[in-house]
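Hi Y.,

Following your request, here is the sequence exactly as I used it, all 233 residues.
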Amino acid sequence: MSLNSPATPLSRLPHFDPRQVPVVGVDSHLPAVALTALQPAALRQRFATPPLWAPELLAEQRFLQRSPIHASVLVPIVMREHPTVLLTERTLHLSTHSGQIAFPGGKADEDDADAAATALREAWEEVGLDPAFVQVLGTLPHYVTGSAFIITPVIALVQTGFTLTPNSYEVADIFEVPLAFLMNPAHHRRHVFEWEGVRREWFSMPYQEPTTERFIWGATAGMLRNFYRLLSA
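Below is the corresponding structure, written out as tokens. Let me know if you'd prefer a different format.
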């Protein structure tokens, strides 16, 4: 994807529901990341000696006219017997990406030492994740959203035993999705939507819980797709 002229944000289109946008393809022809490669030791090694690889998605079409804002998100891999990724559901009243599935994260502060410091601080403020439980492995390339956020995804391992206290203003829910599910392209669906002559494309990775579907799409799915490309390289 690439930056283009400003356009209306999808979430503000009349009656827009990303779940209803047609699926034009599913990448089941691509191999899933091996389960052994998803274990903590293998993930540490992957970031210690990364292979040659290229991110698939770098930027979305712009829909806000403003100066870019640097931000970071924490991609928290919880070290359970089968590793999971901790995600949040944003509250509906937020001005950007309201109601969407997201990683903990937000804007960089002047006092933040680096992108990892931003991600750790934001995770603490949003969901109460104590940095003492977190080991940062490294970062992925920047991902630029249509709302002009230049996001640095910070990949980290999270020890079990933590407790979470969500910020009710920003976070409607917290949940975990198996890392193996997210790193299997058979669950990566491609969508195409056209509005006022502008073609939009994105991934979704819907995860079905017993009573709820977690519809992961947009920027979050895009960053997970780049993570897949790193782990499968």
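The chain has one domain: 24-232.

Thanks again,
Q.
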